[in-house]
Give the backbone structure.
Amino acid sequence: MANPVFEVVRTVLAVREFQDKPIPDDVVQRIVEAGRLSASSMNGQPWHFVLVRSRDALRDLGAPMRTGRYIADAGAAVVVAYEKKSPYGVSDCSRAIQSMILVAWAEGVGSNWTGFGELEAVRKLVGMPDRYEVLAVVPFGYPKRALGKGTKKRKPLGEVVSAERFGNPLEPV
């Protein structure tokens, strides 16, 4: 039996070029809902997400991002921040980001994690209170070009997984 979740994980790729095509409201809603529904340590949910869809705001978000200027061309972006006092904020927000990326991919929408903390300019742009640290900006949009779904450069399973103890090969099923 095929597992649709595994298929999404197996085929998801980073997308940095987007079509000039809006993402339907219901799809955007599912993407942010996936972040909200993600597991968090002790159910603390130390996150806050800011959904950005206006073209001008997306351009403004892309400007301070050294490696994510393509945010300006996305159909939407989610600013992901965590409460600074939370010892689990980075971990919990990372889980939420992955959930959003996977749900988006299942809908045919590409994305990519941009930034990693120290995004003070982004925090100010979206009016996030000082008690939050912005971890990432995740742009979403329909891929501009066809991507090789499932074609990934990954180490073989035997190089990264051991059975019971390090170095014991995991036997294929």
User: Anything to note?
Assistant: The chain has a mean pLDDT of 94. Helices lie at 4-11, 25-37, 55-62, 89-106, 120-125, 157-160.
